[in-house]
Amino acid sequence: DTGVSQDPRHKITKRGQNVTFRCDPISEHNRLYWYRQTLGQGPEFLTYFQNEAQLEKSRLLSDRFSAERPKGSFSTLEIQRTEQGDSAMYLCASGGGLAGGRTQYFGPGTRLTVL
Amino acid sequence: DQQVKQNSPSLSVQEGRISILNCDYTNSMFDYFLWYKKYPAEGPTFLISISSIKDKNEDGRFTVFLNKSAKHLSLHIVPSQPGDSAVYFCAATIYGQNFVFGPGTRLSVLP
Question: Distance between alpha carbon A88 and the CA centroid of its chain, in Å?
Answer without folding.
Answer: 12
